Amino acid sequence: MNSLRHRLLLWISLSLVVMFLISGLVLFAYVQYELGLHFDSVLLERASILARTTEQLADGTLYFEFLEAELKQHYSADSGEYYQVWTRSGESVGRSPSLGEESLPVRLPLYQDPVFQSIRLPDGRNGRLVALSFLPHEEEAPAVDTFVMAFAVPLTELETIISRLLQGLFFSGLALLLGLFPGIWLSVNRSLESLDLLSSQTSTIRTDDLSFRFPASEMPQELRPISLRLNDLLDRLQAAFERERRFTGDAAHELRTPIAELKILAEVGLAEAVSDMPSFRSYFEDALAIARHMESLVSLLLSLSRCQSGQQVLEKVHCSSIGALLKEVCQRYQGEAEERRLSLELAMEEDFSAESDPVLLAAVFENLLSNAVVYTPAGGRIRLAVLSGSGLREILIGNAVSGVTLSDVSRFTEPFWRKNQTFSATAHAGLGLALVSAYARLLQIELAFSLPEPGWLQCTLRF
Question: Measured between alpha carbons, how far is 278 from 285 in angstroms, rounded to an integer?
Fold first, then answer.
């Protein structure tokens, strides 16, 4: 779903996850490094103690005092700690019983003093080793030979601490993220309230009422230019629509008088025409037909102008039977439908009542039925249905059509629009459906045209 809210939530959440991941890894690496330094320092201190307690006897052999002390148990055959001592030439002169016949992996001579390295212990565990040079003490005289001692211990305890640290960082970070998500959701929703308000206000704007203006002064700084621009656009649209409505109404009013005069002249001429002069009578009959057509056009324009300008008077009453009103209108077109061999059907499953203006509602039905009768191909079918129940109150008016596409349907309610090939009847001026749309808005009826199947046009009136 292409939603700004979802995008913000996704990217903020991903950013927080990445930030916590990076900071957690940095913190973990730092703590691991510090623990390693501390472990090495303790390891060096213990190795130094062992070196300081080593004595060189008069015969040159080494005496390990720590083996006789209480620490002896730490270096038994089954202990996890190891030591080994070499002469400067690399000869091993002492080792812990736990080593057995194996040797600690120390490269002699030492390239630095002390030397730390990670090794694999004889028992297979990971270990840490420190090697250092030392001079054993001698009671009678100072020692002259330098020895190398290596001391190694398992990393089990350190690995356990690091593992617990990693688990703690993971679960604490996860808990922190889960705790932050509701706050992120609330923050994003709160930040988008103004945008939601702008969206809801925009959806209320109707083409027949452009008086709404956005409260730009109450908008956030980022939305204020958009609100001002939209208000400016609405000002210009409203002015253009009002000019168009005034022009339509004024033009219709100005045309009424000459059309009425033309109609009177045609009627007088037709009445005074000599019966033996059929050509003159034909001229006056054509003139009268044109005048009547123009009069009907002006009347429709005036009705449309009144609806658009809000001057159309509504007289709503309780219509107890919408189906009966539709049936009455349907009967008026029964004869015309039979002349064109059209099948006119009315299905009334369950009638319903509504608060409406019966005159305007009848005009809506008449215009729709008139179009259906005129534009349905000869021998076609027109079907009307009244649906009610479970909160549904609809009237369906469907008829067979030829050559009508979805792009045509979207233009049905445009004034003066007619499809050249299909809608060619001269009796219709292309204003009937525009007037139906205007009346439907006044009566608060939802009007929709559709092509549910090829060759079948359906108009839905939802009360």
Answer: 10
Lowest-pLDDT range of 19-28, 67-76, 159-168, 243-252: 67-76
Nearest 5°: phi and psi at 22? -65, -45
Distance of CA 334 to the CA centre of its chain: 51
Q: Residue 343: beta bridge partners?
A: 381
Which domains, from first to last, does the chain contain? 4-162 (3.30.450), 224-309 (1.10.287.130), 317-462 (3.30.565.10)
More confidently predicted of 271 and 437 = 437
Residue type, 420: N
The residues near 158 (Cβ < 8 Å, ≥ 6 apart) are: 35, 36, 39, 128
Backbone angles phi, psi at 257, to 5 degrees: -65, -55
Alpha carbons within 13 angstroms on the beta-carbon side of residue 180 total 14
Residue with the bigger pLDDT between 287 and 244: it is 287
Contacts (Cβ under 8 Å, ≥6 apart) of 397? 368, 369, 372, 382, 383, 384, 458, 459, 461
The per-residue pLDDT of the chain, averaged, comes to 83
CA nearest to 185, candidates 2, 3, 14, 13: 13
In one-letter notation, the amino acid at residue 267 is: E
> To the nearest 10°, the Cα dihedral for 448, 455, 413, 292?
-130
Residue 424: the pLDDT is: 46
How much is the pTM?
A: 0.52
- Rounded to whole angstroms, the Cα distance separating 60 from 55 reads 10
**Paired sense of beta strands 317-319 and 126-134, if any:** unpaired
Dist CA 291 CA 266 (whole Å): 8
Query: Which amino acid makes up residue 80?
Result: G
Give the sign of the dihedral formed by CA 249, CA 253, CA 258, CA 261: positive
Q: Would you say how long the chain is, in residues? A: 463
pLDDT for position 249: 67
The proportion of the chain whose per-residue pLDDT surpasses 70, expressed as a percent, equals: 89
Nearest to 367 by CA among 335, 337, 333: 333
pLDDT surpassing 50 at residue 335:
yes
Q: Name the most confidently modeled range: 29-43, 283-297, 408-422.
A: 29-43
pLDDT of residue 270: 75
Give the DSSP per-residue string, 405-460. -HHHHTTTTSTT---TTT---TT--S-HHHHHHHHHHHTT-EEEEEEEETTEEEEE
**Measuring CA to CA, which residue among 266, 233, 255 is closest to residue 300?**
255
Helix ranges (DSSP H) in 61-102 = 65-68
More confident residue, 283 or 75: 283
